[in-house]
Amino acid sequence: MLKITIILKMLIILVIVNSVSYVLADNNKLPIYSGVGGEFTAVDSNGKDIKLSDYKGKTVVLAFGYTNCADICPFTLGYLKQLYKTLSVEEQKQTRFIFVTIDPEYDTPEHLKAFVEFFNKDFIGLSGTKEQIEFITSLYKAEYSDLSEGKVPTKDIRRVTPQKTGDKNEKASLFSHTVVLYLLDKKGYTRSLEYTGTPKDEFARKIRELIHE
Amino acid sequence: MNKQSLNKVLLLVFLFGFASSLMADGKPNITTEQLRVILPPSVARSTSAYGIIKNTGDAPDTLINISTDAGMIMLHKTDIKDGMAEMNHVDEFVLEAGAELVLKPMSYHLMFMNINHDIIKKEGEVTITLEFKDAGELTFKVPVLEE
User: So what's the ipTM on this one?
Assistant: First the structure.
């Protein structure tokens, strides 16, 4: 009888320990950012209409920017190029790196294709109508503003240069925009918010974690 | 230390100070290091130049203008505020004596717009002229590199 009681107690402890470790393991999982992201439609760099859910089953790294961005966007894509290289071929197959333009007027699908493929031929550029882009940025809280048509006229930005042009219509695409890199899981949920300062190994580890979920 | 040695040391200190005063001409001296233009994708209308602009002289100077043969150019600074990147132009930049302006991603950079892809191309070379209040116009030949 004593032996049975001991065995029962051990079983109960085992069950409790197992439950706790399950909860701990669950807590260590990347959280879901509820309210950030969701289903959207856009046009990919091949001119094809797509939905985010078309990438279901793949881990997605989502970035926002525009091709006339001289500093942060090329730097970000350079960072993503290096990050992509740290993944194995199999991991690359399970991942999609997507660059969403916030300047769909200039960034046509063909244009975006040439731009993103300069960094990596597997990268995907997404464009669409202005309404589609505004919807996507609102989903991801990735608000942006057009500096050239809005608060800062280009001609005033150019005060530092002695070069003058007679073109009154001259304007440059200048936007302020989010620097966040969104990591989405295979169901399209936003699971981590990163930036170019994130060590690539750490970012890659999170991508792998989502691939193997 | 005896008196003779002390005199020698004092003489050396005096000579060093005298030589230094001769060398210090009270003027700025602008140099650059690792200045490079980043090779852009063929469809891009913009790119950046990074590197260091130094004032190794002993008087401050102010960068007032920039020009290039490869498009429009300006000094910009990327500021990150609440996760948003803001591109702000910099009207002029004071380089104190011995100071440097570090141009790097997500910070100060020379921004090119409406670029000439015949010049900003692989293995290309771009002419950049920096105009300072005192040092005047200084022209540099800057290579186009991938990063």
Answer: 0.74
